[in-house]
Amino acid sequence: MLGPDCREVTRRVLLAEETPLTLGERLGVRFHMLICKACPKFARQLSLMRRASERWRQYSSEDES
User: Fold this and answer.
1) How far is 43 from 17, CA to CA, in rounded Å?
2) CA distance linking residue 27 with residue 39, whole number of Å
3) pLDDT digit string (tens) for 20-36?
4) Domain residue spans of the chain
5) Nearest 5°: CA angle at 15, between 56 and 61?
6) Residue 54 half-sphere exposure, CB side, CA atoms within 13 Å?
7) Are 42 and 10 in contact (CB under 8 A)?
8) For residue range 1-13, what is the model confidence (pLDDT) as tens digits?
9) Which residues, other chains included, contact 20 with Cβ-Cβ below 8 Å and sequence gap of 6+?
C-alpha cells in the first residue's frame, strides 16, 4: 500500500485532536496531504471550527461574569 487513503487520513486528523500521532502516522498524513486536494481542505475546515469554538467559549464565559 502506498499510504493511507482519505478515510484513514480523516480518522487520523480527528484522532490527532485528542492524542499525538506516531511518527509513521504523521508522515503518512503529510504525504497524503501533498497528493490529495480534499483532505487539506478538510483539515483547514476542522481547524477553523476548532478556533471558532474556542472563541465562542471565551465569549460565553465573558457573558457569565
Assistant:
1) 11
2) 14
3) 999 999 999 999 999 99
4) 6-64
5) 15
6) 6
7) yes
8) 578 999 999 999 9
9) none
